[in-house]
Amino acid sequence: MLFSNEKVAATISENFEPVWVSVRPVPRVTIDFGNGKVIKRTLHGNVATLVCEPSGDIVDILPGVYEADTYLERLLELKWLHEIYKTDATALRRYHTRRSKQATDRPTGDTSRNNGPNVASEINVKHVAASSSLVRDTEINEGPRRQMIHAYLKDHDHTKPSDVTKWLYREVLHADLDDPFMGLGETLFGRYPFADEDAIAR
Amino acid sequence: MNFIYSAAAVAFIASLPAFVFGQEQQRQQSLTLRPRVNPIPATSTLAPIPAELDLTKRVIEAPLERAIAFPNERSHGLNNRPSSTIKIPRGDRSKSFIERPIESLLATDNLHKNTTATDEDNPSVQPGLVKWHKDFETACTAADKSGKPVMLFQLLGKLDQRYT
Predict the structure, then answer these.
(1) Which of A25, A50, A82 sits opposite B157 (nearest CB)?
(2) pLDDT tens across B1-48, in order?
């Protein structure tokens, strides 16, 4: 767990006022193999880290799970941005505008499920294959997902977490909080031969 | 001639028991071969429903018990009423017992506040080494005093539970 890492925990405690909030119960899957073996897993667990002003205004958002070192690097960048924003009220808008322009200048060809620009083509394919899924997640988070966030925040000043949570989970993390099946309905029922019976039962 | 008719009549009467027995045998056989609908397993894994929760059973059976206890009473239950006036008894709340928890589970309008984990299937764990504020408002108040920014970590599930 990221927050059990001593370095991560110490850096957060030293530089931030941390709080966690649950946006909805996590979907869980239990498979009973019938021979006494039962496995339990979470499904579609997604997270986001929002750095905010004391007023509650969002400075920036880190979507998804990050590899520890990159996570700390980004958090400290946002702490620095917060310090600049104290004396320059236009700093946030300029920051998001510049980052979103950088995003649109990048080559596209998204292989992920969102419609934003993609950095997958920038990533060395061999490196991705060899890297862990966490590193790969970090790259996707830092690429198309953050670009979508910059594009949103440059047009929305003084955005509070409650204003953006549903959009963030639906559009950026693809985990629609208003969908009881969290976007997995097609996967679960699309080709399932007993879908009609299940629909009646539901 | 009369003798011939009498002999035929006696033979017919004598064959009747065998015919009837054969029919009965066939009927028994067909019953034996007929597949059972919804067979109940000998060792059912379903736990018995506590009597106090089994409202449907109670509302159906109570009028019958009353009919036996008070045979002269005119109305003993639903069957004595004209079909147009049949109403669902007020006590039959089994549907709402089943559906309301699911509806509330799926409702997403209410973001879940941090509470102490009590789910037996999802045991409590330490939420890392970070000292977390209890809610966003408290963190903002602390940030106002300390000058630090707030770090709001949003997640599905709860950070102080095993499955998040």
Answers:
(1) A25
(2) 566 666 666 666 666 555 555 666 665 555 555 544 454 454 445 566
Strand A17-24 and strand B150-156: the pairing is: parallel
- Reported as a single tens digit per residue, the pLDDT across A7-25 is 999 999 999 999 999 998 8
Q: Is A165 on the interface with B (CB under 8 A)?
A: yes
Q: How far is CA A143 from CA A81, A120, A123, A150, in A?
A: 19, 8, 10, 11
What are the strands, taking DSSP E only, across B51-135?
Answer: none
Nearest to A165 among B105, B151, B154 (CB): B154
* Measured distance between the N- and C-terminal CA atoms of chain B, rounded to whole angstroms: 100
Rounded to whole angstroms, the Cα distance separating A43 from A65 reads: 14
Q: What are A76-87's pLDDT values in tens digits?
A: 999 999 999 989
Token pair belonging to A141: 């988070």
What letter does residue A120 receive in the DSSP assignment? G
The number of C-beta contacts closer than 8 angstroms across A and B is 176
Q: Under an 8 A CB cutoff, do B108 and A175 touch? A: no
**Which residues partner with A24 through β-bridges?**
B156
Nearest to B163 among A9, A42, A162 (CB): A42
Task: Collect all residues of chain B within an 8 Å Cβ-Cβ radius of residue A82.
Answer: 149
Rounded Cα gap, residues A116 and A120, in angstroms: 12
Q: Testing the interface with B: which of A3, A8, A14, A22 to mutate, by most B Cβ within 10 A? A: A22
Highest mean pLDDT of the ranges A137-141, A196-200, B115-119:
A137-141
Residue B126 contacts by C-beta under 8 Å, 6 or more apart in sequence?
A4, B160
Distance CA B156, CA A26 (A): 5
**B152 contacts chain A (CB < 8 A):** yes
